[in-house]
Amino acid sequence: MFRGGKGSQMSTDNNKTSEKRLPYVSTVFVVGNDAEEFNIERRTLWQDVLPDLQNMGFQSNFDLEFCDVALENGELSNAVAEHVLKMWKENPRSWMVILLGNRYGNVSVPTSLRKEEYESIRSSIFEENGNVRVFEKAYTINRNTPVEEYRLIPSAIKDKKQLAEIIKALQTGAKAAHEEGAINQVHEQRQNRFFSSPLESFVRSVLQVSPCRCLFLLRKFDQLVADPNSPNAFLEINEQSSRKIEDLKNEITLKMNDRVMTHVLRPESTDINYFFNSRDGDKYREKIARQFNEKLKNHLADLNPPLRPEPPRSAIELAVNEARTHYEYLEQQLSIGNLKRDYDKRLDELAGVKVNRGVFLIQGTDLCGKTQALCRLYNKISSKDAYKIIFFTNLTYSSNFAHEAWRTICLNICEMANIDAKEVLEHFKLAGILKCLEQIVQKADKPVCVFIDDVHLLKFGHLLSQVGRRTESAPDKLSLFMTSSNVSPVNAVFAVTQTVNVDVISENEVVGMVQKMAENVDRKLTNEQLSTIRPLMTSKEGILIAKSVAHEILLNGSSSMKGGIEGRLARIEKEFGKAAVSNVVKYIACSSHGLTRLEIHDAISADREALEEMNMPVVFSLLTLDSIIEALGPLLRKVLIDDRLCLAPSHSCLYIFLKSRYLVTSLEIRSSHLHLSDLFADLLVDNEQSPRHEIAYQTFSQGIKRDNGSPNFRRLRLLWYHCLHSGNLDRLKELSLCHFEYVDFVTRYFGISHLLSLYEECATQILHHDLQVLSEQVLVPALVTMARDSEQLAAEVIGRLRFTRTDNSPFLNNLVDQAMSWVDLYNRQPLLVPLTCWISPPATKVCRSFTLKDWKPGNTVLALFANHQYILISGNQSDPGVIYAYHIASEQLVGTFKGHTAAVTCLCSSNDSSFFVSTSADKTVKVWVFSQYEPTMSLTHHTAKVTCAILTSDDQFMITASADSSAKMIKVETGDVVRSFNDHTGSVVSLQLTSNNQFLITGSGDFVVQMWDVTNGKCISRMGGLMAPVSTLAITSNDAFVVVACEDETLKVFSTVGGQELHELMGHEGKVNSLVCAQDDCQLFAATKSKIFCYDIHNGQMIDVLDIAQPYPICSLRISSDNNFLISPCGPKVTIWNVTKRNHDAHDVHADKEGFLTAVALSNDDKYAACGTNNGIVALWDLEVCQCVFTTVQNKGDPITCIRYSIDSQYCISGNQAGCILILDAQNGVVVRELFMHSSEVLSIMSLVQNKMISCDIQGKMVIWELFGDDDTPEMVATGVKPPIFVPPTGRIMVGHCSLSNKE
What we know:
By secondary structure, the chain is an alpha+beta fold. The protein is built from 35 helices and 57 strands. The strands form 15 sheets. A five-stranded parallel β-sheet has the order 2-1-3-7-8, with helices on both faces. The longest helix has 25 residues, at about 280-305. The termini are far apart.
């Protein structure tokens, strides 16, 4: 076990600083004069070197950024050179490639001048009769630096003519001032910058850095002289400039001999491009490709030693690593300094841990400084007096859910106090972890102080984080300090002892904060600037606005200070382009805990449309990206996670703000997540190879693992999240949460507790069967085993899913296959399979349930939409005409639809979830669109209460029923009545449609159920024999059975084809209010008061009883589209049940002695078989998969006596003891026809060509009939033929038993 002593506590006190970690990222900068001069060398780097470097970076566990400065910015300028130099210096793992040829480059102007320089040069220009005005317009005073200076105005040098005038004036003044001894007498290089090209200034700055992380390519075209009248991109025309570039290259060669690639080329003419296209040019390219590859790989390997991340030795090591990130963020928060606040005295009181015990809640509005207060309170308590741990909710990937957060806290306390963590390691559920916490605190030799920021954001999933209502006070030796928004409910786990309210930060406090912010970057804010910042505090985001404006002033020297955060973003868009800023911010805003700069860069670079919009044909500019990130400043948070610097919005409220600005529609949000999921699934690869002469960029690899077997942490962290939020659930399962290698890596490197947090997050977003099965029936039951040995994951997955393999989805079965392959290749240690692996997974009836707030119970009706992720519900007696939309997974109200003036009686949603229909007691039918909260159509075709409605499968028509004794078919698009069904004499209370939309079934208060032909509106059959008004109907998905519930509490099953009653279902209590059939055509759910009874339709047996334990009737039942969930509202409670799939072909012979086989048939193509049983069931089997595919009851209780397939094997024909013959479609089990040509037991059925059949009964009656005849009239009837008989398909002869003689 990994455990340290008391001295190993990771804490942050005033006198302690931790060693700063660097992110694992290297940036290779390629710098030259411009794009054209070194086109061949840059193409070599792009096409022959970069892919190898990217592969090396991925395999060695570091990110590789590539910045071709000439491609991104064209001709090198001083501003760009300084930007590159700054980025290069900030990252000690970055590398520079500098390309020097025959050209020196154009002289430019410095980006800044010291005040004395500016004034001396200005005076000298004036004395030399130079253009002072143009010089003055080019620079502006910057008073934010420690020593005042003048900075160049970028817009002043955009015009080349104006730039030339500025250079001329500047050089004239600088030369005169230097000769007069006014400036730069000591620092000659500073003076030379007025006369140097940006390239020379840049090179000399690079050479001053030690160690110099740079590689030079020095190229010279020997014995070539440029033609002054014909400018050349490769040769220098000016002789003085030519000498300068040669001197510079000689100096580089002397100083950097081991990091110089020198190439002297001798073209035959000044047509350099001709040389590069020749064989000599190809040799040159191959040579520099080898040199670049070798040298850059060696240098990058020195900067980034190859690492193979090993799995943590224990959960304690994971917890300690997690805590380190929180401590580093604490240091960032404390770096602002000890600013005085109004609540300082109260914090001093709380810091007395020797006297203060309990739970202290620091509350306030958003952006009032609660986090700062918590961090300062942490700092006020000495590590000598208490063990301390601080936790920032949602800072990292493991700080979202309560169970994982408190487990991390407990393990860190054990590590600090040197306490055995065995009990904590065996608990994963929050209730058990909190009990462990109480024991740990009592064992500790010092008080324990726990600090949790934004505790209201901690999530409590239904898997592991449920604790119920806890009113216990905190343990005696525990002090728990938490911050929370004062408008959000808080689950503090322990009873809150005291509440400290933090007021909105005052103007003076904000001024002190921004002053300290300026000091930290060696800058200052003037009194005038501070006075303009003060009024910004009027808005609720005042503190963030003030910091953002102050950052803008320090960055640019000024700010318009208008528009708050939105105004700041608008100014950034104006500076860098709206498209560029929008693309950067939208990906940051939709990330869970931030993205790295490389990930943002690659995501945008892979979007060809975005690049075209920004006029960046090859790749998104890394320099532009860095500038945008720098401009966003305080709006972003930078946190080092998994050795990568992640960029995320700095405050939770910013996520909402940025999404509302850059991701307006849900489609844009899903599209961004889908693009990021493509990135982390390694799918953003352009398979169309670019021509050799073009430059193309391929995104950095995001494979799941490296050649050494170690995983890609970024893929593990982010792929599942973006797949989830893109709505692509098949990809979510296939590539992550139902992919064994992915699940195994997450378990071994991040812990089983974190893996379950991923499923918890999914459960708060979607209702999904596969993920629920994997988490609740496999992983949670395996926790005890996994806590002892994480290598047992494969055994647990295989064993627990093997029991349900026939019912599993392809994704779960693929997971099992992947786990078995993993076991086959496993060789680290003996793999022991625990006995628990062979226990059937626990059955979970209730998937989840939630209570509707402020709900006065009545007759609650419900409908599902959006792939059963949302419900529409009505029946609140406080407002009976209102329809509510809820997101099931999060249990959140997402919409309210108002329009009805009386109770809503029925809700039904379209198949594509684009609209829904509601009926009401106000006699209206309304059509709604989900995106609008007003009805798009209101229909008044009925003269009385509208009782129900149903939509056709193509959503083109709806059929409504009413208390006016009619049902009407209405075209959805126009609202016009197409057909009316008026034969009932009582209220029509229930409707059902067959799957082909051809037949309508209506149930009425006149004791009758009728079937109608929808095409002509005629009644074709009636299901009579009812003794009371119909209350509700249901039909199976194969249209074989209709179930009818009546007011007299009876529940009967009818044959759809014949209309006769098959059997009555018994055992339920009270009147059935709602019915629904599962899509397996076996299970029927009947809802009464508080209970749901589950029947087997085929044999009439009661399978299960689901008790909601509410004293209200259940008036609506719905089955999810995937047939996995049953949703039932009962009073204020909505319950989602798991629907266990039951194969009704698996008949239990031992339980039912009457179920033995009585007849068997084989299809002529040997692909299918059919069998009949003694209790009247016909089953069809697919012999290729050895599974029963369909079953039906011909007539319950009457044994099947013979069975036969048609000649073409398309139909199955069965006869029973009562003389009934049933014709089934062999492909789908649908009943085609039912015949009653015999009055006694049918013993023989033979198939003939031309769809003719011969049947013979026990009384000797033989009948020849048509398979598809219009009626039951036979072609021929004969008597005296005693079965069995045999007739070949041609029908030319018949072999049978002649009753006149027993021997014939």
